[in-house]
Design brief:
homodimer, alpha+beta
């Protein structure tokens, strides 16, 4: 490489297919949203179902209301802080509680587990409307 | 315990001292903010310096502007999706670029590394104004 001093692996944008493939390898992601105009990030267990990211929450009414119809983000990464390798994918889209009985019945058969036990069984879908990602080194 | 059917470990709130101690054990956290009114979550290498979370970014002007003076959140977790154990800590506070030369000189001696190589050397501090956390099982 003639570009000059070696600086190690470079942070490069990932195409959408790669983002979707990498996302599917993770079990935990983070939902980013606003509650009372303050940014909040919550870890969730999730599953990708077509054009939706699905997760469960049993948490408070305030969270449910903040999610309903809002544009939220969903972020997944796999970062090695020692080797400085890894990737991060960010999805943006509308969140909505699942209510259709047929849809819920199908979703309940997916391998979707919250990371924490929850009292409720509130399923939320984030429509995958925008996807972007960045990777360091070989993320294939 | 007389409370009924055993449901495994319970998600419990963590006190602030525990939150701060757990945060210091992690190398990577996620900053949650809004850019052009859309929620964004970014992984960052960080260090806690007193009442500030410090991280570096070399990324675009848009991100720098979105961070400057904004109320953002910073989230750290250590989650085991198989064993359903772990914790998550959320800090909320104002973000601001470090500009004071003495402060910058001191911060540059801290073990603060970005997870990805960055072109710039833009140090950002989030003031720890609100701290909350939740844990599953024994997080001591």
């Amino acid at each position: 490489v003639a570009a000059g001093i070696a600086k190690g692996p470079t942070l490069t944008p990932l195409d959408e297919a790669t983002c979707r493939r990498l996302m599917a390898t993770a079990a935990i992601g983070r939902v980013g949203l606003s509650i009372d105009a303050l940014p909040v990030v919550l870890p969730v267990g999730f599953v990708v179902d077509g054009d939706r990211v699905l997760f469960r929450t049993g948490e408070g009414l305030k969270l449910r209301q903040a999610l309903e119809g809002a544009v939220v983000c969903f972020q997944v990464d796999d970062v090695d802080p020692i080797r400085h390798t890894g990737w991060s994918v960010l999805v943006t889209g509308h969140a909505r509680a699942l209510r259709d009985p047929d849809d819920l019945a199908r979703v309940r058969r997916l391998p979707l587990r919250p990371w924490a036990p929850v009292d409720g069984d509130h399923h939320v879908a984030i429509t995958i409307e925008l996807v972007s990602g960045r990777g360091l080194g070989d993320v294939a």
